[in-house]
Design brief:
Layout: H1 3-28, H2 32-53, H3 59-76, H4 81-88, H5 92-96, H6 102-126
Region (Disordered): 125-152
Protein name: DUF2809 domain-containing protein
Transmembrane segments: 36-55, 62-85, 105-122
Length: 152
């Protein structure tokens, strides 16, 4: 399986696990702390979806885009449209939310950063060129010159 395809499979599995965790948090918890966790999971889900679309993008870029998308959805709540939509289509509340809260923006940032950290570590472990050490100061060995080429 090509690396991009296998990465997409892993990201799809991560997205499904994130949805399951988010639904569990929404269904069986009730405190503000768990609501914060649910918001962070929303950012993780957006991260995994965008990472699956842009498989070669660096984790920091994916985290930035995921945070921006989440923030845009949160600001959209100020219009009242998501709340009105949730009254007629209840599942819209899970996707768009209903009420703007500043703390949600922090949760999105933390969720996206956590996803980027996990993604970066897993990419390094897998030897990805977009996550592996590449500079001499990072501990990577420099490439050997071709045979017959003087070294200095």
């Amino acid at each position: 399986m090509p690396p991009a395809r296998s990465r997409r499979v892993v990201l799809a599995a991560a997205a499904l696990l994130t949805v399951a965790a988010g639904l569990a948090v929404a269904r069986w918890t009730d405190s503000a702390a768990w609501t914060f966790v649910g918001d962070a999971l929303y950012a993780v889900l957006i991260y995994t979806i965008f990472a699956a679309v842009a498989v070669r993008a660096r984790p920091a870029v994916v985290a930035t885009v995921a945070t921006a998308i989440c923030a845009a959805v949160e600001v959209f709540q100020l219009t009242g449209v998501p709340a009105a939509l949730a009254q007629t289509v209840p599942v819209a509340a899970l996707v768009l939310g209903t009420t703007f809260q500043w703390s949600d923006l922090l949760a999105y940032l933390l969720g996206a950063v956590a996803a980027a950290l996990v993604d970066g570590v897993s990419r390094r472990a897998a030897g990805s060129s977009r996550g592996a050490p590449s500079s001499p100061s990072s501990g990577a060995r420099p490439p050997h010159p071709p045979e017959g080429t003087p070294s200095r």
